[in-house]
Write a structure and sequence with these properties.
homodimer, Arc Repressor Mutant, subunit A, DNA-binding
DNA sequence: CGGTTAATTCAACGGCCGTTGAGTCGACCA
DNA sequence: TGGTCGACTCAACGGCCGTTGAATTAACCG
């Protein structure tokens, strides 16, 4: 493009939160909340679970920094203070909402069953199923969104990659250049997740799992067991940063 | 590190204890700034350029939302108001700081010179050189970081991919399934950028360009000109979500 | 049926942020 | 030499945010 850098992001502080919907009486100083009367609610409802649901959605939609406790509380239909009553602080809430069952060796267990020639396809399929199973997708999108601007979320993504992708893969196949191979696989899978789940780039976003396994599996297979050229012969790379 | 879901990101915005209230009417009320005296500075310095530099760094380090005008001003050694004096608002500043020379067809021009069999390697090399040339790396990291939580930055990433990767590639090679091929290439390249430049995953982050071209080029080549299986035969693409 | 405990809201505090308007000072031109 | 204009800072406003402590109400247990 030329030199017309004009407009870029977002309004001053604008965000379309949930509606305030204040009740009858007026005059609370800060903001209006649910409008319910005070005290414990009758009946049983899983309020805590509702908060976790709402938090997961908000974090997935906006990332850690931009998601607000007030917004989460509004989405869950409760007062913001209740959120902190249950979870202590925003960071703790993030941790509880985003935590998901990591089955560390699931990828590689399938791979072993698939045999050495099918391991690329098995890794891709396992990755896709992991993302699209249950609540994982929302949680992982939230994690990926937050990781870009939040150090601890980034550390958690690293942990996810290391524990769920790199570790099992390099351990199972005791090949030379295991770490390089693992990060190459990781780069393809993370890129796939970004375009398919976060940005929703279109032919990729609605392709079937089968088609993706067919399209991407061979490349992953090559990263795992193929010839990578003279890359990382073992001796002379990584003068890198600290 | 950090096994339990317990502690997660960011320092609490919490109290620091002392400093009960601001004084009567002397002393700067908001925060202390550079301490320079008021009025125009003697000599000539490229203050505007310094602000742009600082903004680029801050946006790259924290993303759009978390970077602050006050922080940028402090890094540039000026008053926050001067930043707005030059750029109007934060969004405009982001646009000016992040804008970079897009040479739209650079990727494909090299590719044409490389011949059909070397196009994968040429695309990868061109991508790496584009990222590592001049200020592009900081700017692109800033863009990628911001894109996760900012719609306009995301749109700009989409534009970058479409204009610089997908568009040229699909136009040059008039192959069937051009869009699928282009997004597959994009997924590999974006994933590579994430791990190499944003998270700094280690064997990948300090590998040489040559090694990466050798390692990744063939996969990209296959996405561009190879057989992708039964993927996207043209008729029946998934009813999909949403 | 009284007392304890947990769930829930209310009201507010202090902090950082983007933005603004008014003022001060140096460079430059006639 | 005086005036204009742009560079630059100061001080503040209003807003949203995370967090807190006290008050209120329902469930639960003996």
């Amino acid at each position: 493009m030329s030199a017309a850098p004009g407009r870029v992001p977002d309004g001053p502080r604008g965000r379309t939160g949930a509606e305030p919907r204040r009740g009858a009486l007026d005059g609370p100083s800060d903001v209006a909340s649910a409008g319910q009367h005070t005290g414990r609610r009758p009946g049983e409802g899983d309020t805590r679970g509702a908060i976790l649901e709402a938090a997961c959605d908000e974090f997935a939609a906006h990332g850690f920094d931009r998601a607000t406790i007030r917004g989460i509380a509004a989405a869950a239909g409760v007062d913001p203070a209740l959120v902190l009553h249950y979870f202590g602080c925003k960071a703790q809430l993030f941790g509880d909402a985003i935590s998901f069952p990591v089955e560390p060796a699931a990828v590689v267990r399938r791979s072993a069953a698939a045999g050495i020639d099918g391991i690329g396809a098995a890794v891709v399929r396992s990755f896709l199923e992991g993302w699209e199973e249950g609540q994982n997708r929302r949680r992982l999108v939230a994690l990926l969104r937050s990781a870009m601007t939040n150090d601890v979320a980034l550390a958690r993504v690293r942990d996810y990659l290391g524990r769920r992708i790199f570790g099992p893969v390099t351990r199972e196949l005791a090949l030379p250049d295991g770490e390089l191979r693992a990060t190459l696989v990781g780069s393809q899978l993370i890129g796939l997740a970004m375009l398919r789940y976060v940005t929703g780039s279109e032919p990729l976003a609605s392709a079937s799992q089968d088609d993706l396994v067919e399209a991407i599996g061979p490349g992953v297979q090559r990263y795992l067991t193929g010839d990578l050229g003279a890359a990382a012969p073992g001796g002379e790379e990584r003068a890198g940063r600290s």
